[in-house]
Design a protein that fits this description.
The chain is of the alpha/beta class. Helix content is about 40%, strand content about 20%. A 7-stranded mixed beta sheet has the order 14-15-16-13-12-17-18, with helices on both faces. Helix 2 (about 65-85) packs antiparallel against helix 5 (about 110-120), helix 2 (about 65-85) packs across helix 7 and helix 10 crosses helix 11 (about 300-310). The relative contact order is 0.13. Bound molecules: 1,4-dihydronicotinamide adenine dinucleotide. 1,4-dihydronicotinamide adenine dinucleotide (NAI) binds next to helix 8, strand 10 and helix 9. 1,4-dihydronicotinamide adenine dinucleotide binds near residues 152 and 230.
């Protein structure tokens, strides 16, 4: 059945939908069947200017509100999102192709968690008092000003909320540019924030490709840029932000290791490996795509993994029984198929999948490679699709060195029943987010982000506050002022 998800207009500025049909057309495609579900337009320079002007105008009153007042609005928005979770999840499924089974629990719901948690923190943001003899100093935690959020296409609603929640909690205003591939969820978020009582102009959405993002990042009125995207885009955006000495958060790609020792609980390790590779058809930045399995466990692990992945229910994402859907775009699917071909050409052993399914939409079967070596392309580059590589290892020091031998550093996982070893390996990982005996859980209470080429800054938790506020220090002289002459 053809779907439609046409929003009232392309952009949301100053509390209202805005359209400018002079902007480059953006067709929103439902990945499961290739049908066009909405027609939008990229922001023209006039629309970008309108968003910047609205943000600038909204900032003084929003930052002057108490944190408790700001937090109340964010928490109200969280409640509205939860009330409408099903509708928002269907929209997210149409936008991304991810199974409804996933979007019902992981997208809008995770966004609501961020708004609730950071809304709750907003009232308790403080500086500190520093006694200096009779004199003293104090610090004031201030917002940065106008923040630009730029999103990727894999978790559009979650990304918008993970950026908006800390920005707004701290008293900043935000202009959010979704990925041109998945522009719909952020518009709903903007509408809900207005309904929750957010003053006009505090959260604005403009659509467009990289050029619109670049125009925002390059504007002198913008104080901070938070990007979720690939490393190459991160380099460009970080450089442009540096030219203006702007704050940044960079949530970029990964090629994360998942290390499974011989004493691991096999079924749990396999469950985590599935969650670390095939959720969202593998389109997750933190995925543990290099699965290092101890040689003693390798055969049992591969048998169990292949048997379980073989039972994945692949199909219509809107059917709640489906747990594996299409790639978000035809283009991303082609990238993944090219990587699979390279894996085969370079000598990796295909255990499962490796093919495109014969049906509408770009469905790639969950793919498992074994006997992968560190030098193979599939073990070095981010694939961003349902392709898992199993690599063998013998000993702890060796596997840790190999796990860290990558330019990325987003995440890492270890499975073992030996807890001393688990903590030792976690301490040794060069990664921003690590899991012991589980994988890919990212509750809002926990900081999330990468090291090395995978990023700068942290999202969620109290840590996000540090990245959306700055300290002003005030020294207070209590006595006479001494001077040398
Ligand atoms: N670390 C994290 O939290 C996450 C990272 N990612 C990463 O995102 C990538 C996939 O997402 P894509 O949308 O393909 O990434 P992308 O890097 O192609 O695009 C990301 C966003 O940046 C915008 N953009 C592109 N060029 C720009 C420029 N010069 N200036 C400003 N904005 C620009 C795009 O329009 C889009 O909104 C993967 O590498 C993945 O690992 C995805 C999800 C989470």
């Amino acid at each position: 059945m053809p779907q439609t998800a046409q929003p009232r207009a392309s952009h949301y500025i100053n509390g209202a939908f805005v359209e400018d049909t002079a902007g480059e057309p953006i067709a929103v495609i439902y990945p499961a069947d290739g049908s066009t579900i909405a027609h939008l337009h990229a922001a023209t320079p006039a629309v970008v200017e309108q968003a910047l002007a609205a943000s600038q105008a909204a900032l003084p009153a929003w930052r002057a509100m108490t944190g408790t007042e700001r937090g109340r609005i964010l928490r109200r928005a969280a409640d509205l999102i939860r009330d409408r979770n099903r509708d928002l999840s269907v929209l997210e499924t149409l936008d991304t192709g991810k199974p409804l089974q996933e979007t019902l629990v992981a997208d809008a719901a995770s966004g609501a968690d961020a708004l609730e948690y950071l809304g709750g923190l907003a009232g308790s943001l403080t500086g500190e008092h520093i006694q200096l003899g009779d004199d003293f100093a104090y610090t004031i935690r201030e917002p940065l000003g106008i923040c630009v959020g730029i999103g990727a296409w894999n978790y559009p609603t979650q990304i918008a909320c993970w950026k908006a929640a800390p920005a707004l909690a701290c008293g900043n205003v935000m202009i959010f540019k979704p990925s041109e591939t998945t522009p719909l969820g952020a518009l709903k978020l903007a509408e809900i924030l207005t309904e929750a009582g957010l003053p006009d102009g505090v959260f604005n959405v403009v659509q467009g490709m990289g050029a619109v993002g670049a125009a925002l990042v390059g504007d002198a009125r913008v104080d901070k840029v938070s990007l979720t995207g690939s490393v190459p885009t991160g380099r460009k955006v970080y450089a442009a932000a540096a030219a203006g000495i702007k704050h940044v958060t960079m949530e970029l790609g990964g090629k994360s290791p998942l290390v499974i020792f011989e004493d691991a609980d096999l079924e749990n390790a396999v469950s985590a490996t599935i969650n670390a590779n095939f959720y969202s058809s593998g389109q997750i930045c933190s995925n543990g795509t290099r699965v290092f399995v101890h040689k003693a466990l390798k055969h049992a692990f591969l048998d169990c993994l292949a048997a379980r992945v073989g039972t994945a229910v692949i199909g219509d994402p809107l059917d709640e029984a489906t747990n594996f859907g299409p790639m978000a775009t035809e283009a991303q699917g082609q990238i993944v198929l090219d990587y699979i071909a390279k894996g085969v050409a370079e000598g990796a052993r295909l255990v499962l999948g490796g093919t495109r399914l014969d049906r509408p939409g770009c469905y790639i079967a969950p793919t498992i490679f074994a006997d992968v070596t560190d030098q193979m392309t599939i073990a070095r580059e981010e694939i961003f699709g349902p392709v898992l590589s199993v690599l063998d290892f013998d000993d702890e020091a060796e596997v840790l060195a190999r796990a860290n031998a990558t330019a990325f550093g987003l995440a890492a996982g270890v499975f073992t029943r030996d807890l001393a070893r688990a903590h030792r390996v976690a301490a040794g990982f060069e990664a921003g987010t690590c899991w012991i005996n589980t994988y890919n859980l990212t509750p809002v209470e926990m900081p999330f982000g990468g090291v090395k080429a995978s990023g700068v800054g942290r999202e969620n938790a109290k840590a996000a506050i540090e990245h959306y506020s700055q300290l002003k220090t005030v020294y207070v002289g209590m006595g006479d002022v001494e001077a040398p002459y």
